[in-house]
Amino acid sequence: MVRGFYEAASGALSQLRNFNVMANNVANLGTTGYKAETLVGSSFAEHLVARIGGGDISPSRNIGGGSFFTTNITEYYNFDQGSMESTGNELDMAINGPGFFMVSSESLGDVLTRNGQFDVDSEMNLVLPGVGLVLDDGGSPITLESSSILVDQYGMISVGGEEVAQIGVYAVEDMDSLYNAGRGMFQSEEEPDAAPAGTYQVLQNVIEKSNVNMAVEMSRVMAGQNMYNACSQVVKMYDQLNEALVTQIGRVSS
């Protein structure tokens, strides 16, 4: 009976963690380039459950397998491309296809992002506000003479008809190596390389919107709420049974 109590409690805790992830997805519905997150759940190894009593331990009395607990073991990120939105801002950029912009952050180091809502700082460096310096295809910061620029499909930036830099578009071979660095930024366990030419286009005056699907998130919330309520009810039932058992044993012993 104690085992069932912990099984139900672990299920409720797993749903609470799922709620936190879903709430974060909904909160970032309007965050440029944000990628939806999902927790992947797993149960512990199964154990053979057998009938007890009568001294018969033959295989014919086996009930079957069962797992004791469930847990959230890892995060899964949906890297599907979000919809594109025209902004009319010359410094806004988006990647059509696979790949990431790379930004040098003082607190995080080099991070990858699909957020191309760029600006220029006081020294005319191309920056992602609140994060850091946008890097070119060689991993160096991009300095502009003017905020009036033209960007072609390859990411080449021109000012006054003169090419000044090519914005870096980077890729990783194993997408599972990416982990969340916060604020829609990612870092990789492997060294990012330049994305292969022809696999992407850089779009100017455009941003990529979050790929969070509100309908999907709400359906997950409702399903999770039902699961959480069911687990909570089972916990209450076990608690009541334990209380009754303790009370009855106390009466018998007295």
Report on the architecture of this protein.
There is one protein chain. This protein is an alpha+beta fold. It has two domains: 118 residues, no CATH class; 125 residues, no CATH class. It is built from two helices and 20 strands. It has a five-stranded antiparallel beta sheet, with no helix packed on it. A three-stranded antiparallel beta sheet has the order 12-13-14, with no helix packed on it. It has a two-stranded antiparallel sheet with strand order 1-4. The model has no long low-confidence stretch (mean pLDDT 84).
Secondary structure layout:
Layout (H helix, E strand, L loop, with lengths): L1 H26 L9 E7 L3 E4 L11 E5 L3 E8 L6 E3 L6 E4 L4 E5 L3 E5 L5 E2 L5 E3 L3 E3 L15 E2 L4 E4 L2 E5 L3 E2 L6 E5 L2 E4 L4 E2 L6 E4 L1 E3 L5 H40 L1
Antiparallel strand pairs: 1-4, 2-3, 5-20, 6-19, 7-8, 7-11, 9-10, 10-11, 12-13, 13-14, 15-18, 16-17
Helix pairs in contact: 1-2
Share of β-strand residues: 25-35%
Radius of gyration, taken over Cα atoms and rounded to an integer in Å: 27 Å
Biggest sheet strand order reads 8-7-11-10-9
Unreliable segments of 5+ consecutive residues:
none
Number of helices: 2
Shape: elongated
> How can the largest sheet be summarized?
5 strands, antiparallel
Protein structure class: alpha+beta
The structural domain count equals 2
What is the straight-line distance between the termini?
Answer: 24 Å
Helix percentage: 25-40%
